[in-house]
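I hope you will forgive my troubling you with a question about protein structure. Could you please explain, in whatever detail you think fit, how the structure tokens follow from the sequence? Thank you for your consideration; the sequence and its tokens are set out here.
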Amino acid sequence: MRDVTAGSEPVLELLPMVFADPGEARARAEHVLRAAPSPVHASVAHQVLGIWQRDFGDLRIALRHLRRARDLAARAESADREADVLATLGVALVHAGRTRQGLASFERGVARGSGHTRARVLYRRAYVWWVLGHHREALEDVRRALPVLRQVADDIWTARALTLRATVHLALGAVERAVADFSAAERLWDTTGQEHDKADAVESRGLAAFRSGDIPAALRLLDEAEERYAKLDTPTYNLSIRRCEVLMAAGLAPEALAEADAAIALLDRIGGQSTRKAELLLAAARAARSAGEAHTAIARAAVAVRLFAAQRRTWWETHARLVLIEARVAAGRRSGRMVADAAAVAERLASFGSPAAPEASLLAGRIALALGWTADAERHLAVAARSRHGGPPPARMTGWAAQALRARAAGSRRGVLEACRRGLDVLDDHRMTLGASELRAHATAQGAELAALAQEVSLAEGSPRRLLGWSERWRATVLSAPPTRPPDDPALLSGLTAYREIAARAEAARMEGRPVPALEREQRRLEREIRSRTRHMGGAAADAGDRLDVGQLLDRLGDVRLVELAVVDGRVHVLLCGQGKVRRFAGGSLAEAVAEAEHVQAGLRRLAHPGAEARLPLVEAAGRRLEELLLAGAVRHLGPGPVVIVPPGALHRVPWALLPALRERVLSVSPSANSWLRARETTPPPDGRPVLVRGPGLATGGAEVPELADRYGTATVLEGDDAQVPRVLAELDGAGLAHLAAHGTFRADSPLFSALRMADGPLIVHDFERLARSPYRIILSSCDTARLASVGADELLGLVTALLPLGTAGVVASSAPVNDAAVVPLMLALHKGLGAGLSLAEALRDARTALPGDAVHQATGWAFAAFGAA
């Protein structure tokens, strides 16, 4: 290391270095202090160590260094040196929650400094004003600092000032001004070596992208910023706060809560900034509220309110109070005092110019409605409804929700439906900017209330057609367009390959009884990487897909009866479509039906093993109860033809062939009426080649595959080392028929990592999404391949729903564990029917009747279902 104490300039270089290379700056500052420096040099070294501890370590240690730096600067009689340290100390004091002392330090710093130094002090005070939520004061100090910084060509501090001004503009909802400042700042950063500031610029662009409504770009930029920070070995508390906000907007509240809590724990361990802890607590409270954990949200928000109040951060405290009231309402609390509190929060947020003000007015209106205070509700909802015509999608959604509630309170059914339609249109536009099916599915949760309101009104009007239209309006929307596929993304392909290898090694070790914690950690890391890469993709679809045309549906049904189950206020309503009309029948309780379906699943699991024959009557009895709850009076009007069942997400695990009225029928299941229509109109590929795949480890060895190979003659057969994922995907792309005999694994925690086991590891949903066109017909002959995760408003994620938007018109899969030996005759009979020209549903019906009559074979037949219309 060169002798940094030889002159003033080398020592002063340590100050910009602390943001370019923090670790090196810290080491050099410690070296300076060991060399008996002059007061000026010692002041700089202590300031550098104080900045490092303030931003990356223990605030108590930071304050000791900075006070020492201040005293040394005063001893050296350097007014500008003292002013500079006073500004750094002021920032640290504010982050420690000592707001009054921090602002007093800035007052002395502004008075002591002159010219260039004073401009830097003003910039840092502007930053503190932003931290405190005093946005007008922040903009004023930046306005005073910028001309001086530009005049002396101080590119680094000019870029910092522009970045700060942009951040303040974002807090006030002025996105275009923010983007202009961020762009100008980034051009300056390109001329400097300030790597930490460059990372901050990328992070800031991510926040701007989010405020502009581009969630994929925001996630990509925040991930890039994290990689840059990691190279500098610096903590990323502010980044965590921003990513929590983006994750919540994407419907990923549990992930946001986990990230915020992890950052809080780390901050507590190192004694870090009190201001950051308060902001992280607020982020955690918002995430917990969105995740349905009301009591967790109350606890986090209450602590955040107390911290912000102690730090004199009124802007932040008011936002935390909003979340606290929202969480209390979610926990079932209602009172006149809460209406007044929400209204006061709304008024204060509006005075700050906060974009959250309409949300607070909507909250006040909701509570007032629940208490029957219609006049008060109308006043607050009218204020919230003003946001429906402008601003980012969440603000417009808030406005349309308020307008819908106003219309309902006024008894205007037409007004409710119009507001619901307009609000869901906004969310549709936003949802289709997302390329990843996971994000599209989760984003629908934001429209659940509007869809439910429209269904309530349609039911009250007594119009089954309208109820059907609104049930379809927000159901299985993730299937309305294929996800964006990035086949040329080398990082994603590399991650998928590495994930497959690690997963295969972990599985092999587990089968040998060896512990695999290191492999499992690496597997989880790769999962996070793959998930991040797919979330970066923007939407490619121009619109949100076709709306259901009920008349067209009825025309296309012919002798088919389509049964859509709508859920309104916890009750099932059976919408029977056919013979040119839609009829409604009242079903039972959704909760009872879900519980019964779980009992049936438990029974089928037992029946998959010989010796459980005594369970068969119990399972059949549960099937009869499910029929009463889910089909009710519609049973008598099903007619003799095929039946299509369209269940809500909560009922996706019902084995529909078990219901007595459906056992002997040609039966298929579809996530929505619209997706059934699209499947029916899907044309098979011209060559129609069959592909047969046999994965490892099956109890029967996939015994049906050799017989099917003989039957089809020209089929492509992949088994042994040939059944590796790249080869399997290549053959599946555009195939007419695919039969995959492979172990299935369902991941409830991460459904897009549900998998089929191939020779080289798991074939996951993310792999299928890379197909240009998935096979026209797919038969998945092993356990749990039809299991799905219900997310968002009424969306399903899993193997089956990944295939349907990609060109697959029909799938046969199992929603329960099955007996491998009993599957073989079922599959052979199924393919016999296909060879005779039958559809999947027809062939599966005939295959069930051809099975032996024992309990194991009957349970196996019930576990499989035909999805789609091929």
